[in-house]
Amino acid sequence: MPDKPFRRPPSGLDRIAFLALYGPIYEHSPWIAEAVFDAGLKAVHDGPDGLHAAMRAVVEAAPRERQLALLRAHPDLAGRLAVRGELTARSATEQAGAGLDKCEPEEFAKFTRLNEAYKAKFGIPFVMAVKGRKRDEILTAFERRLGNDMAAEFRTALDEVHKIARLRLADLQA
Description:
The protein is an all-alpha fold. It has a domain at about 75-160: UraD-like (Orthogonal Bundle). The chain has helices spanning about 15-20, 30-40, 50-60, 65-70, 80-85, 90-95, 105-120, 135-145, 150-170. Helix 1 crosses helix 2 and helix 2 packs across helix 3 (about 50-60). It is globular, with a radius of gyration of 17 Å.
C-alpha cells in the first residue's frame, strides 16, 4: 500500500519551510532534517514512510558521538523537565498521553530512581516511544532494559528514537 502523502509535500518545500516542519521531529536534533533536505528531496519523501526512511538513514550513518548526542537530547520520562514544564510541546503531549503527568508520588519516585539508575549505567536517558503505552508498561520496560548491556541498550534506544520520529511524522500526515 503506498504511503499516504503529507498535505504539504516535503519535496515542494523550500529549506526554511522544510526545517520549520521537520527539524523538530528528532528531539533537539535539526541536523537530521538539514541533512535530508541537503541530500535532495524527491517524491518518495512526500509521505511519512519515505521521509522517515531518509531521516533514519541519516541517523544510522552518523558517527556514534552524534548518535549519542541525539539520545542525550531526550528528556527523562516523568522527570524534572516535565515537572518544571520544560519539555518540548511534542514530548509533553507524548508523556501526557501515557499518563506520565499524573503519576502518584510513589510512581514518580520510582521513575526518578529508575531514571537515575539508567543514566548511571548507560550515560543516556531512558528513551521509549510512549504513545499508546501505560505507566505500568513503561516501568516494566524500564526495569527490563536496565538488564541490557551497553551495546544492546544503545541499539534499543536508537530504535525507540526512530519509533518516536515515525509517530511524530504520522501526526503531521494529512
